[in-house]
Structures are given as C-alpha cells and as structure tokens.
Amino acid sequence: MYSKAPVTQPKHALPLLLALSALLGACGKQADDTPVIGLVTKTETNPFFVKMKEGAEQAASANRVTLLAGAGRSDGDNAGQVATIENHIAAGARVILISPSDAKAIVPTIAKVRASGVMVIALDSPTDPVDATDGFFGTDNYRAGELIGAYAKARLNGRAPRIVTIDLLPGHPTGAQRHNGFLQGMGLATNPRTSNETASPEQVVCMGDSIGDQAKAQTVMENCLQAATDINVVYAINEPSAAGAYNALVKAGRDKNVLLVTVDGGCRGVADVAAGHFAATAQQYPIRMAELGVQAAVEFFRSGKKPSGFTDTGVALVTGEKVPGVQSLSPAEGAARCWGTP
Question: Fewer Cβ within 10 Å of end Cβ, the chain: N or C?
Fold first, then answer.
C-alpha cells in the first residue's frame, strides 16, 4: 500500500482548501486504487509541452500510475492553470507537476494545495519564489542563454553587436534568465542570474515580448526591422518565436546577414539549424523533466519523501557551424537527442 502523507489545514482555510481536503481521500487514488498525478503545462499546442506530456504519459504508464493532463490557453494564462489544478485535485491527484505560466500569480494556489498535503513540483519554469514548490526540475536557463550568446559573439568575429531580443513577458524568471544569460555570453552588461528583470544595454537596439508565440514574434521582428536597419543578431526566447522572427527576416530580405539564436532544441528547431534558418539553439530535455517528475511522485506515493531545490536536467548547444572555444553538437547529434535525454 502507498503511505498517506499527513494533511494539515490552516485556521482560516479558504473554500478551495476545504474542497481540496474533502477530495483528497483514498491517498490520492482513483476508485481502482491507482495513484493519480496531475500535469499542468503552459499550453497544449507548443511542441515543447506536447513532448513533455508524452514523456510524462510514458513514465506514468511504466510506473502504473494515472496521469491527468491539462494546460492554460496560452503562456501567461494563470486562471486557466488554476482551473486545471482544481480539476486535477477533484479527480484525486495527490501530486501536481506544473510549468507555471505566471511565476508569481500561481503561488497562492500552490500554497493552498501544498497545505492540504499535495506535493507540487515545477517543471521547466520555476515559481517566484522558487521554494513555493517542493522541487524544480528544469533547464539552467541562464546557462542556456550564455551558450547561444557566446556562440553569437564568436560568429560576429569582432563586429559590434546590434541586437534584437524577442522576449517572453515581463518579470518571468525563465524569460529573464535566458535573456540575461544571453547578454552575459555576449560579454555585455547584464543583470545578475537571480534577477527577474531583463537588462537592456546600448547594444540591444530593439526589444519586444512574444509570449513565446510565433505570430506575435513575427510582428515584433517586423516592427524592429523598421526601427533599426543595422541589426546583426536576433535572440529569441524559444523556437516558435524564432520561427516568427525568421519569417519576418525572410520577408525583409535580411535572413542571410542576421544571426538568429534561440532556446529549445526540438526536432523541428534542430532541422531549422541544419537548414541555416537558425544559427544555433540551446537544447533542453523536457522528456527528462517529465520522467523525473513522475519518478518523484511515485516515491512520494510510496514513502512520503519529497524532493527539494533545483535539479538541472541539462542543456547543450546545437549549431550548424562550429566555432573555436564554444562546445556544440552538430545538427545530426542534436537530432538524435532532441528533447529526450542529454
């Protein structure tokens, strides 16, 4: 039998907490006695989270636990993620794996859930503060940014950088860490690793938020091309936004003389590196994140043991053209690993 973790309730529990406590029965199991895990991603359409869901489903099947999956409508949809958490709890989930869309706004809901005995683990993106969850399995996003920044700097070969940054949304830890890590890799003035604000040194001639969306990123890139005619580097928060930026560069006839670097390392993104659309991508491993999350959930069901702190799931640079001093994978090597295991 799986052990039951102690359940405590604050003196002034809100209605959600009371509902959670009433629904937690049977140690978070369904009627057939199978433990239940809830997975909450940012969207159901972003290929990154599609792959994360697939990894979680495979791990859940291998460990004979039930996985429920849901998501917000888009990056930043906190209300959608709150509703998904509530639905998972109502269905018997005793563990929630979540990639937070709004790192701060989700914290009160997570606090209520944890107070009722549910374990919560962040995948890919941390909460703000990070310790609002029981653990965090994800990419070192600052390091991912550093890798593509160092690569872009090497490819410029001494030319002065004129940079466009296509970011996530204001105040999000993942977006800020990738952005600031990129500037660090470029050797430019930046904010510290712990900051949730994006730096803007003079070499960054245009900035815009895409929420990780391809169409929004294309609009940002089109506007930046009108505002600054001498750009030579584009940093994009993820591969969908990089694809939008590339479309805008092609329309403007600028795709041959601008370095476009990004983060994700999905199979499509690696193919874009091979085709010369992207100069480089920092490869993440969402399947690994999901596997570790499910494994932690199984251990919690068995023993009540919880993880703690940050677990780095790895990152590697994938480039079409290697440069001295910057270690990278070839597109063929990146394709063999895309979103699986580092």
Answer: N
- In a domain, residue 173? The reply is yes
- 28: Cβ–Cβ under 8 A, 6 or more apart, which residues? 35, 36, 92, 93, 94, 95, 118, 301
Assess if residue 342 is contained within a domain: no
User: Are 199 and 302 in the same domain?
Assistant: no
DSSP-derived 3-state class of residue 152: helix
For residue 169, the SS3 value is coil
Query: Per-residue confidence of the chain (342 residues) as pLDDT tens digits?
Result: 333 333 333 334 344 444 444 444 434 445 457 999 999 999 998 899 999 999 999 999 999 999 999 999 888 899 999 999 999 999 999 999 999 999 999 999 999 999 999 999 999 999 999 999 999 999 999 999 999 999 999 999 999 999 999 999 999 999 999 999 999 999 999 999 999 999 999 999 999 999 999 999 999 999 999 999 899 999 999 999 999 999 999 999 999 999 999 999 999 999 999 999 999 999 999 999 999 999 999 999 999 999 999 999 999 999 999 999 999 999 999 999 999 878
Say if residue 33 is in the same domain as residue 151.
no
Q: How many whole angstroms separate alpha carbon 228 and alpha carbon 252? A: 12
The domain in which residue 205 lies consists of: 141-283+316-337
Closest CA to 186 of 200, 174, 172, 171: 200
Chain mean position to CA 97: 13
Quote the DSSP letter at residue 142: H
When divided into structural domains, the chain yields a total of: 2
Task: Report if residue 304 sits inside a domain.
Answer: yes
Adjacent-strand bridge partners of 234 = 164, 260
CATH of the domain at 59: 3.40.50.2300
- Same domain for 94 and 237: no
- Decide: helix, strand or coil at residue 319: strand
DSSP run (H or E) holding 58 = helix 47-62
